[in-house]
Design a protein that fits this description.
Strand content: 15-25%
Strand order of the largest sheet: 5-4-16-15-14-6-7
Number of helices: 30
Bound molecules: iron/sulfur cluster
Helix content: 25-40%
Largest sheet: 7 strands, mixed
Radius of gyration: 27 Å
Oligomer: single chain
Length: 877
């Protein structure tokens, strides 16, 4: 009898994508990958995962991984180096720059994808030992307005509530949040509350997304007018006698000034309606619902944050909760939904240029306290440059040495192309990452340092509800990859700081971070992990999800703050803030008549370095697109499924056109995910204006004035190849993940027959077999090397382009759905199959669709879209 196969135990870890912070069980398999399921014991998700979480197993391959340190050579190419040479180059380069130009000439740019331990060590080195507070993070583009709003109101960056509030609320208000796509597991929790307890859901957004399809009330607010709406609400609550005077009196200050300003901005329903572009009846329904529902949670996300007035928007929302005492009690409170998995952890360690560490700022007492704790020889004493300013300083040549960790600023920053060019000016440009190429690495760093990726990393992250969870390694580090915290500590040692950075493990780093949070705290800051500062290695290994402030027994809790005041201000009272009158920074003009809104898609994450490897996820929205209202499309000569050039003052993209009645007139939407690596002209960061919020420094990524114009391509098609293809500059292309192959969607004006001459360059060293139908404008070629199929290209007229089914035998059926996007990523069910089931009466409900097609029966992420399709079908028939 064979001995039973010993299977490695499943590691309890955390999803690396959004701020919900779902727990994951990952069991390594014999192929070097892992079987992924949701962790039933994690309080954030109780076993659920969304489509991205369930596809994590498809993202673990080593294709495109940076596996060894590399140094730039004189000819601009990169050659493998040993760790010692690479680390010495970094240490010497930073040392030289500081000596010559001062600490203000160096900068670190970090990421919400880093673990808290990585963040902590980088922040300690830069701010305590190199004397520079130029340490910022891509969270600046994501959550900085919330941080600034919290600090103004509460005296500290604290989310008052927890996820259980979303189960217990009677009213959930979502502002500037497409939670159905961006926080799917949490959104399902809200929908469950609505279905089972009858909670009301209100969605406030200029764009009607699938999130709104589950709402009781949708407010299609005009872009940039959130402050007017919540000022109007504060005025209304005051007039209706709904204020909690005793809470205001006991626990807050500055109420009268805030109410006076709110009344100036929006005194009554009519003024609110006029200021927000809403009708008075809709405003009245929302205000009355809020007035009559004490258990109300207001969730907000990037639509609030990514604004040149984002901090005021946050405070306008917080004001309404403070004024009604609806904060820190079950089912109540303002609740920011964090974008990234560890944006919160980065905020805790001071990963932002205007924070020091452990929620301390740059007040002299804080600087002195952190100096003494770290025994820091060269302490930064004032705030550093925030992301946009930091890269502008690089552009001007003022910052000369930069270290980018785990992020892609040449994709994500406003004026991305200009920022990419600025990187080439640096005297020392260091990137530590786990990919061999991206738009930032295309700017040719002097040093490339291989970092461990998800599945190999060990440490902690903090999610949207202040819950600290472990990320645990379940795969060995490939090649010579090292944890980011260790790379930074190794550089610190070479700069003479070995003793202060003598961390053996991530647990060592965590304990020091926890101890700093408690050092001379005495209740001044809610962020206090003192109870965790003496965890043993075994306790750190076994550490269960824990919400801070950490209780002595450090078990999972649902802690709410501020129900009885106790804010982190000198008088322990919250501050009402009088916001500025709402206005977008730039006006639309005749030349740029539309507003460009940017955002995430359901099945992709940031620059697609991981999700872009999943054929299942690619099938949802395979091409970069611009969404526009049908009447605007008509006015600008655009056709659904055609192409458009989208231009702003800063750049242009060429994108597929998707007409959508949910898009507000005068606004367009473009997703953020496509880069120069995966599409010919779809990097939307190139288009975004660098206007920033005066308090948070967060850029206004949702309102850049833009223009659209049609672009005609006579021919369309696709290609499949074993290796990625390099396309001529006149071809529009977008890369699509396919099983064991590289796929591309393409469009061109070259008549297919000219591809007879172009194909040899595309498939070099291959034997080509062609099919040319001149009469119908069809060209097909199959390329063979060593008798194996190496690639294929199919082109035809744009009106009747070739279908992927022609290649189905090669792809095994996965990849792009035959017609229209795949709605269910788990079972690759396309929109056409769902519509067919409805039309043929095989299905008449979401449950029927699940029975007939399995769609929606696994992770449930597509349920809002299924309901939306069902709704549209019912209205059309
Ligand atoms: Fe990951 Fe999805 Fe959970 Fe977000 S909701 S943490 S992306 S599984």
């Amino acid at each position: 009898m064979n001995a039973p196969v010993q299977r490695p135990p499943a590691a309890r870890t955390t999803c690396p994508y959004c701020g919900v912070g779902c727990g994951v069980l990952a069991r390594p398999n014999e192929n070097g990958g892992a079987i992924i399921i949701g962790d039933p014991d994690h309080p954030a998700n109780l076993g659920r995962l969304c489509s991205k979480g369930f596809a994590l197993d498809e993202t673990l391959g080593l294709n495109g991984r940076l596996l060894h340190p590399m140094l730039r050579q004189a000819d601009g190419t990169h050659a493998r180096a040993d760790w010692d040479a690479a680390l010495t180059t970094v240490a010497d380069g930073f040392g030289r720059t500081i000596e010559r130009d001062g600490p203000g000439a160096i900068a670190f740019y970090l990421s919400g994808q880093l673990l808290t331990e990585d963040y902590y060590v980088a922040n300690k080195l830069a701010k305590g030992f190199l004397g520079s507070a130029n340490v910022d993070t891509n969270s600046r583009l994501c959550m900085a307005s919330t941080v600034a709003g919290h600090r103004r109101a509460f005296g500290e960056d604290v989310v008052p509530g927890c996820y259980e509030d979303l189960d217990q609320a009677d009213l959930i208000v979502l502002v500037g949040s497409n939670a159905a796509w961006c926080h799917p597991v949490l959104f399902q929790r809200m929908v469950r509350n609505r279905r089972e307890r009858g909670a009301k859901l209100v969605v406030i957004d200029p764009r009607r997304t699938v999130t709104a399809d589950d709402a009781d009330l949708f407010l299609a607010i005009a872009p940039g007018t959130d402050t007017a709406l919540f000022s109007g609400l504060l005025s209304y609550l005051a007039g209706a006698g709904t204020l909690d005077r005793s809470y205001i009196e006991a626990h807050t200050t500055d109420f009268d000034a805030a109410l006076a300003r709110a009344s100036e901005i929006a005194l009554d329903l009519a003024a609110t309606a006029a200021a927000t572009g809403l009708d008075e009846g809709t405003v009245a329904r929302f205000f009355d619902l809020f007035r009559a529902t004490p258990r109300a949670v207001t969730c907000f996300s990037q639509g609030v944050n990514q604004s040149a007035q984002g901090t005021d928007k946050v405070n306008a929302i917080v004001n309404c909760h403070l004024a009604t005492g609806r904060i820190g009690k079950p089912g109540m409170g303002p609740f920011s939904l964090t974008g990234q998995p560890n944006a919160m952890g980065g905020r805790e360690v001071g990963g932002l240029a205007n924070q020091l560490a452990a929620h301390m700022g740059f007040a002299p007492d804080d600087v002195d306290r952190v100096r003494r704790f770290w025994d820091a020889p060269r302490m930064a004493e004032r705030e550093g440059l925030k992301a946009v300013q930091m890269f502008e300083a690089i552009e001007r040549g003022e910052i000369k040495a930069l270290w980018v960790m785990a992020t892609n600023p040449a994709l994500s920053l406003p004026r991305a192309a200009a920022m990419q060019a600025a990187l080439r000016k640096l005297d020392l440009f260091v990137v530590s990452d786990n990919v061999l190429s991206n738009d930032t690495i295309a700017a040719s760093p002097h040093v490339l340092l291989p970092a461990t990726a998800w599945g190999e990393k060990d440490g902690t992250v903090t999610n949207s509800e202040r819950c600290i969870s472990r990320q645990r390694a379940f795969l060995p580090p490939p090649g010579e990859a090292r944890p980011d915290w260790r790379i930074v500590a190794d550089v610190a040692a070479r700069m003479g700081f070995a003793e202060a950075f003598a961390f053996r493990t991530a647990g060592d780093v965590f304990r020091e971070h926890a101890a700093l949070s408690a050092f001379e705290n005495d209740g001044a800051r809610a962020f206090d992990l003192g109870a965790l500062a003496s965890l043993s290695d075994a306790e750190f290994d076994a550490f269960a999800p824990t919400q801070w402030p950490a209780p002595a027994n450090h078990s999972a809790t649902s802690e709410r703050l501020f129900a009885n005041g106790g804010f982190s201000t000198p008088d322990r009272k919250a501050r009402f803030i009088a916001p500025e009158h709402p206005a977008l920074r730039q006006a639309v003009t005749a030349k740029f008549p539309l507003r460009l809104n940017t955002g995430r898609l359901r099945d992709q994450w940031h620059s697609m370095t991981r999700t872009g490897a999943s054929p299942r996820l690619a099938a949802h929205r395979p091409e970069p697109f611009v969404e526009i209202h049908p009447l605007d499309a008509k006015q600008h000569g655009l056709a659904h499924n055609g192409f458009a050039r989208v231009r702003t003052q800063h750049g242009e993209c060429v994108l597929k056109v998707v007409t959508c009645a949910g898009q507000q007139r005068g606004s367009i939407f473009v997703p953020i995910h496509w880069s120069a690596e995966n599409a010919s002209a779809a990097r939307v960061g190139d288009l975004v204006a660098p206007d920033t919020d005066p308090f948070s420094g967060q850029p206004e990524a949702k309102a850049t004035p833009a223009a659209v114009a049609p672009v005609a391509f006579a021919y369309r098609g696709f290609a499949l190849s074993r290796e990625p293809l390099s396309w001529p500059v006149d071809v529009w292309w977008a890369r699509v993940a396919m099983p064991d192959a590289s796929g591309c969607l393409i469009a061109t004006n070259d008549v297919p027959m000219t591809w007879h001459d172009r194909a040899p360059a595309l498939f070099s060293d291959a034997v080509l077999t062609e099919y040319i139908d001149r009469a119908h404008g069809i060209y097909r070629v199959a390329a063979f090397t060593d008798g194996r199929l190496a690639g294929a290209l199919f082109l035809g007229p744009a009106a009747t382009p070739p279908q992927w089914s022609d290649l189905r035998s090669m792809t095994g059926g996965a990849g792009i759905a035959e017609s229209g996007p795949a709605i269910c990523a788990c079972f690759n069910v396309g929109v056409s199959a769902i519509r067919d089931a409805l039309t043929s009466r095989k299905a008449a409900s979401v449950d029927d669709i699940g029975t007939a097609l399995r769609a929606g029966t696994k992770c449930g992420t597509c349920l809002p879209e299924l309901r939306s399709i069902l709704h549209d079908h019912a209205h059309a028939h």
